[in-house]
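Regression test case RT-17, inverse folding.

Input:
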């Protein structure tokens, strides 16, 4: 946290923006390379994971989402839950003594007066948006490990801003006895439908295709959601799109192949729009980082992770931009980013490579082995 009256300028070799798994793993790599750094996070440690609904489990196996060489072990060897993973991240931070400025937002990154470094402007996470900078950090290197799921996607229909509409599944207990319309048909929506049914909600699913995608629903969810729909416990309205949201009611338009359009009114207490998330590109745009493709992926050197803007790096799922349902960039295939960045910065700051040749060979071999496993048996 920042003091409200603080505006002094600190000096660091690097600033890491984002304290998710890859941000933390980058911090540990910087420690090993003796790079003096500051890591800042707009929310809590692992903020994206923290807004998952309680007891949500990872799709990936524990060995693929562990970081910094620290094993992730669960009591029953199952895939880690939200709570287990957040506890794991805290333990890694404590084990390596990583000091993180949580609830601290980066409001601006601008060139220093001499043009040789960057001035990273920080404000308290509880301050009003657009408020004055409370502190600056002067650094030659900034690492954007900001992820790619900052804001829920929008439907673009009237009434989407009503209080009954939410882009996140909350604690399931709150939905007991309520009529919930879930918009979406992939893992988030399917898992929410199952969990809310178990919690005592009356669930209706609206999905714009004629059926769920056959190749991307988690294997342990598909049989259960199919059974709930067949039994009538969960109502699924396929080939439907939301037309308008009103207090207590949602208008759907069902467009089935070979059939006339059919308007359907669904009585609701809550609407969950679980249709994916988009990346906040504010810092990318502010820095003038070139963005490639419709997803807005930042352009970067895959050997160093540095963007065309000198001294600005990207790491983790931030490199994927706003990903569609066909995700390609996951935590599990980003573990090589921290080492690449640390090596590049260490060579500039100290004139040496990060670690001995044998140590680097071992790390490269381990990374190649994991990459091979992922390619042979992708889980995410």
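Golden output:
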């Amino acid at each position: 946290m920042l003091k409200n009256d603080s505006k002094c300028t600190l000096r660091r070799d690097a600033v890491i923006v984002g304290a998710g798994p890859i941000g933390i793993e980058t911090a540990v790599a910087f420690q090993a390379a003796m790079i003096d750094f500051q890591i800042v996070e707009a929310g809590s440690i692992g903020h994206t994971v923290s807004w998952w609904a309680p007891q949500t489990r990872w799709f990936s196996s524990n060995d693929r989402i562990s970081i910094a060489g620290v094993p992730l072990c669960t009591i029953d060897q199952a895939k880690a839950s939200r709570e287990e993973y957040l506890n794991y991240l805290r333990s890694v931070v404590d084990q390596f003594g990583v000091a993180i400025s949580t609830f601290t937002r980066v409001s601006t990154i601008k060139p220093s007066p001499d043009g040789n470094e960057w001035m990273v402007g920080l404000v308290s996470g509880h301050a009003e948006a657009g408020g004055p900078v409370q502190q600056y950090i002067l650094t030659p290197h900034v690492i954007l490990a900001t992820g790619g799921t900052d804001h829920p996607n929008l439907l673009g229909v009237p009434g989407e801003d009503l209080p009954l509409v939410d882009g996140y599944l909350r604690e399931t207990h709150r939905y007991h006895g309520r009529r919930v319309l879930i918009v979406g048909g992939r893992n988030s929506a399917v898992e929410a439908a199952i969990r809310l049914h178990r919690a005592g909600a009356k669930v209706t699913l609206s999905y714009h295709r004629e059926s769920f995608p056959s190749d991307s629903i988690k294997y342990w969810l598909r049989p259960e959601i199919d059974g709930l729909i067949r039994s009538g416990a969960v109502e699924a309205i396929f080939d439907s799109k939301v037309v308008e949201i009103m207090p207590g009611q949602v208008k759907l338009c069902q467009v089935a192949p070979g059939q006339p359009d059919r308007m359907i009114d669904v009585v609701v207490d809550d609407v969950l729009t679980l249709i994916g998330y988009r990346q906040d590109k504010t810092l990318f745009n502010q820095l003038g980082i070139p963005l490639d493709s419709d997803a807005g992926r930042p352009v970067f050197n895959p050997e160093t992770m540095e963007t065309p803007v000198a001294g600005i790096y990207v790491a983790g799922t931030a490199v994927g931009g706003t990903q569609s349902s066909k995700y390609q960039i996951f935590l599990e295939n980003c573990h090589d980013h921290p080492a690449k960045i640390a090596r590049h910065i260490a060579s500039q700051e100290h004139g040496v490579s990060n670690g001995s040749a044998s140590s680097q060979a071992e790390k490269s071999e381990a990374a190649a082995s994991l990459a091979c496993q992922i390619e042979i048996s992708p889980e995410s």
